[in-house]
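Hello Y.,

Per our agreement to keep a running log of every chain we model this quarter, I'm adding this entry. I've kept the format consistent with earlier entries: sequence first, then predicted structure.
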Amino acid sequence: MSLNNIPDDHILVGIVSGVRGLKGELKIRSFSDVNDRFNVGNSIYINGQNYQIVSNSNSSKGIIVRLEGINNREIAENLIGKNLTIKHLDFKLDSGMYFHHQLIGINVYDIHEDFLGEIVEIIETGSNDVYVIHLQNFTDILIPALSEYIKSVDLLKNRMIIDLNDSLNTRM
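Predicted structure for the entry above:
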């Protein structure tokens, strides 16, 4: 999977992992948490080209979709390994929620305005994400992505304020 050919205004939601049958059905490996992402009528993009989903089903190996204009196995096989994206504008997050790519590289400060570093990784734990805050020559700080710790996020200023209590401060 290559992220190089994803337009800046798109979000990666899956990859074409294979084909099924002779009518151009695509096997999809989903990266999306949205349950209805691949429902009939939704649009997805492959290499910047918009396709409408005309049928879908689930199999033991993932999601199977047919896209408008992809109607034979030969065309479908040429799409194996291709990224599936949607436009940012086609997806809205609830207030206080962010895409991972929006937070990677954001500068993190504590509530006293002390610079702690930048988020270099986000660990998905199942219950909540954990942000890895890195500063050269210091131990990384791991902070749960919970409102009791994350006080504010300003994407325009590339700034996050956290309440770093003593139990989470690995630099003490």
